[in-house]
Every structure is written in structure tokens, then in C-alpha cells.
Amino acid sequence: MFNQLSNRFTQAFKQLSGQHELSEKNIQSAIEAVHQALIEADVAIEMINPFIEQVKSSALGQAVVGSLKPDQVFKKAVHDHLIQYLKPESDRTLNLSAKSPKVILVCGLQGTGKTTSCAKLAHHLKNQHTVMLVSTDVHRPAAIDQLKVLADQIEVTCYPSDPQHTPSTLAQNALNEAKKNGTDVLIVDTAGRLHIDASLMSELQSIHQTLNPIETLFVMDSMTGQDAARSAAAFKAHLPLTGTILTKVDGDSRGGAALSARMITHTPIYFMGISERIEDGLQPFDPHRIADQMLDMGDIVGLVETVEKHVDKKTAQSMAKKIRKGIFTLDDFSQQITQMQKMGGLQNLLGKMPGAQHMSQQLAHAQPDEALKYTQAIIQSMTQQEKQHADLIKGSRKRRIATGSGTSIPQVNQVLKQFKQMQKMMKKLKGGNLKQMMQNFQPPKDSPF
After folding, report:
1. pLDDT in tens, 1-25
2. At what angle do helices 313-324 and 330-342 cross, to 10 degrees?
3. Phi, psi at residue 309, to the nearest 5°?
4. 254 with 338, same domain?
């Protein structure tokens, strides 16, 4: 997430490495590097120059005192102004305090992930509210079917849309049904287009007039940079947008849309799509955490939340008891890999750590998550006896496991080598010597995956 932008910012900060103070002269190269980083990130041009001037003024106005270094002071100035540009003008959040049914109208261009975002939002709200979904996209019956499938997946009511009706009629019928059933929140998916046209805007305005929604959210594809922000501005000219959902953030290496969206639409970014998963693919937008990630400072809060959400406490307690006894089998090894995959994989977890850019560059060719899939396949091709007693796995057994898992004997050997290293670590944990274990452990560099 934002890899390209954070890498460029890191290079900008290095321009001040070794300096003893901040001055007009020595700050210029760093300022130019930040300027170039924002251009390459596809940030809206109209916000780049004001941002640069504010950062420069702020950095020059701060004294370099104590143990602080000039690059740290400059980095703080950039960080503070990133938050300022990402943060809404007020602390407004999704308005769910109005009388039920609270209508949320969702709009955007085709292909931005609008329908999926509706389902993700419904799942996000369903624990505290009764939610109904409805599609008004009569132009694409497949979109109606898609929303129904997603609603069934997350066990949320979906109003049966008839493509023979007009979008406004569908919206009114769904609202009547929501009132009748005492539904708290009605989320309305609308038609998209490949580009903005008069008929689309007229249709949306008609639906808006029919429903008078409490929230009108624009779904923006973060990977389209400032084009997405300009599309939002065009929608804003025709509809009273109240907020934004930024999608495909997990695949966005630039960050231009995130930085441009709020400044152009003057509405808060409520949520961002961080994965394709409906159940946990939508995350509340936090300007501080996004600024941290843009500057390669990690997302420790997100890491903790991920672990708390996906790690099964009973399984973890059971594993802790075994480790205290010095017991660690291939079954346990497989279980740890499964937990990691539930949390989004190794690269996702590393991406939330400070200095993730450096680590991700080291892992760029290793494809660790792909290797974990092969590791799982190899372990699953073993007998239960082999999983409990890895020393039994010799020549003929290795050939059988390699054939069964669709891998090779060197790959089987590598998994066994990694397991034995992990087993050795766990036995050291039994003695409580964690510090020495971490100092001595070196991951293998000769992976055949």
C-alpha cells in the first residue's frame, strides 16, 4: 500500500541526512524531491504547490534541538501536513442517528467496486443495525444478481429488484419495504457508467429526490489517481455528496487519489477497501494511520487489530502450552501458517510494520506468500505419523510427498529445514531464553520456491 509514494518520500528525507540544521539552501533538494514524489503519485496539481509551501514554511520554522536531526524535523512537517490534507474539516462520521430507515445512496463510475462496497458496508453495519440492500441498476441485470449473491453471503436482506421498473420506482418500493419491516439502514446501489454523462446524472438526481438520503457516498477507485478525484468533483456538482469510499487501496502504490479526494470534494473519506473479502475488506479511514503508511512508519494499530480479529484465542493458548513443554510438530507448523494466511499473508503483515518498504524490497522476488501455499501442500501430503515425527521422512517418503503435493524433493527438503529451525526456536522458548533465540536465528536464503 502506497509503496511508490513512501519510497519517494524516504529518498527525499535522505537529502537532509548528515545536515546539522535546516536552511533555505539545504532544504531545497528535499523540497524538490517531495514535489516530484507528489507528481509521480498523481496527486491533483492544484494541491501540490500549496502543500509544498506549507511544508517548507513549517520545516524552516522549527528549531532542530536536542537529539533531533534535520531529516526528522522535516519528516514531521511532511507528516503533519499529510494528516491535514487527509483529515476532514470536521470530525463528521457516517450519520446513523437519524430516524429509521436511514438511507445511504451509493454512487460512482462503473468498475470502481461500487456494488462490492455496498455489501462490505452492509456487513460493517449489520452487527449494530438491521440492514437492507437494493440495486437500482436496471441497465445491468447482472449487477442486481451480484448484489443478491453478496447479500446472501453476508446474511443481509436484499430487496428483489425488477429490471422492468424505473430506478426511482425501485428505490421507492425498497424504502416502503424497509419502513414496513422496521429496517434501520437501507443501502442503495446505483448504476455506474464508464464515463460521466447527462443521463446518469439525471437518473441519480431522480433517485436522490425520491429517497432524500441521509448519506450520499461516492465510491472512488484509488488506483486512478487524480482522475478519480476529478470524477468525484463532477458528481459533487450534481449531487450533494456527503462522503467517500476509497476502493482498491491495497493495490495502490501511489496514493494520489487518497491525497486529492478530500481537498477536491470537501467531503470526508469514510472508508477504504483494503481487500476483496466482503467480511473484513472495508476499513474506517484514519488520516493518521494513512500518513504513517505513506511515510513508511507502519500501521501498528492495524497490525494489532488484525491479530486480535483473526487469531483464535483457544488455539493460541493451546499452542502456548505446547511450546512451554518444548513440543512443536509439523501439524503445529501448518497451523501457524494457516493463522498467518487468515491475517492476509506474510507480506500484508510486514506491510504494517515500520520500515516495511525496506522489507518488501528484500522480499520482492521471494514471493513468501506463494511459498507458504507450497509449504501447506507439502505438509498436507504427509501422513499423520509423519507430521508428528518428522525424522521418519526419508528418501522414499520424500518422493511420495513431493508427488502428492505437486512439488519437488528439494522443496520438501526446504520445508523440513524450515520446520526444524522453527522447532529449534520453540525448544529455546521452553527455556525462556527469547532474546538469545532472536539474536541467533537466521532465516534460510536458499529457498527453492
Report:
1. 677 777 788 888 888 877 777 778 8
2. 150
3. -75, -35
4. no
Sheet hosting strand 269-273, strand order edge to edge:
157-158, 131-135, 185-189, 102-107, 215-221, 243-247, 269-273, 282-284
Q: Is the pLDDT of residue 436 over 50?
A: no
Taking the C-alpha atoms of residue 309 and residue 169, their distance in angstroms, rounded to an integer, is 40
- Contact between 52 and 12 under an 8 Å Cβ cutoff? The reply is no
202 domain residue, yes or no:
yes
Whole-Å CA distances, 293 to 185, 195, 255, 446: 33, 31, 10, 31
pLDDT of residue 443: 43
Q: Quick one: which of 295, 280, 448, 426 has its CA closest to 375? A: 448
Bigger pLDDT: 365 or 41? 41
Domain that holds residue 342: 304-440
Mean pLDDT of 128-142: 92
The residue from 30, 58, 86 where one domain ends is 86
Q: What pLDDT does 448 receive? A: 45
Same domain membership, residue 276 and residue 128: yes
Domain annotation covers residue 292: no
Q: What is the pTM of this model?
A: 0.68
Q: pLDDT value at position 355?
A: 52
Task: Kindly give, in sequence order, each residue whose CB lies less than 8 Å from that of residue 311, ignoring residues fewer than 6 positions away.
Answer: 339, 343
Q: DSSP code of 223? A: G
Give the DSSP H or E segment for 272. Answer: strand 269-273
Contact yes or no for 222/231 (Cβ under 8 A): no
Domain end among 224, 257, 287 = 287
For the domain that residue 34 is a member of, what is the CATH number?
1.20.120.140
Cell of 170: 425501485
pLDDT of residue 435: 44
**130: helix, coil or strand?**
coil
pLDDT at 226: 72
> Using CA atoms, how far apart are residues 361 and 370, in angstroms rounded to an integer?
16
List alpha helices for 279-367, DSSP H.
287-294, 300-310, 313-324, 330-342, 346-350, 356-362
Residue type, position 329, single letter: T
* Mean pLDDT value across residues 82-110: 85
